[in-house]
Amino acid sequence: QGNLIEDSHSQMLQKFSLTGFDDQGKTFWKLEGDTAKIEPGETVFLESNVTLRLRDYTVVKTDNVQWSQDGKLLKTNAPVHVTHENLRIDGRGALGRPDQSFIQINRDIEMDVNATTHLSCDGPMKVFYKENKMIFYRNVKITDERGTLTARKMDVYFNSAEKKINQIIAIGQVVIKRGTD
Hints:
- The protein contains no helices and 14 strands.
- The chain has strands spanning 3-7, 11-21, 27-38, 43-54, 58-68, 73-84, 87-97, 102-112, 118-121, 125-128, 133-144, 147-159, 164-171, 175-177.
- Strands 1, 2, 3, 4, 5, 6, 7, 8, 9, 10, 11, 12, 13 and 14 form a 14-stranded antiparallel sheet that branches.
């Protein structure tokens, strides 16, 4: 939906909205932006206040997104901000396949898990919603009141019903620091 403001080989729209549905016909995701340019090759360029809302109350915000309708792929190089209940993730650049419940933040990831736990990595960070799994790559660091855990890679498994982390598997150059230990 939107208002057409220019007609040529491509179309410019204001207040663009795109919705994806699950197998039962329920809204699974919704992508919105203040402006959209639609290319003849089924590529949509969304700009300004671009927001992707997933059914599980995850909200992804950025300045611009390229939506390839044929491959059902979202891409951006802009800063990305993700919120899900008390979880907040910031990074730069992303790609996602909303129909497959997959999103990747490309680099410079900063994640506040709760008031006392912070995770950072160089990236990428991959989130597989159906598997309840996040994978963090390159210089991964978790800091909380107990200390610091660093590794080259971390696989984080979470329980979506209880909204908590079940298991963390740290791989490569793993270091745990607690106090002076």
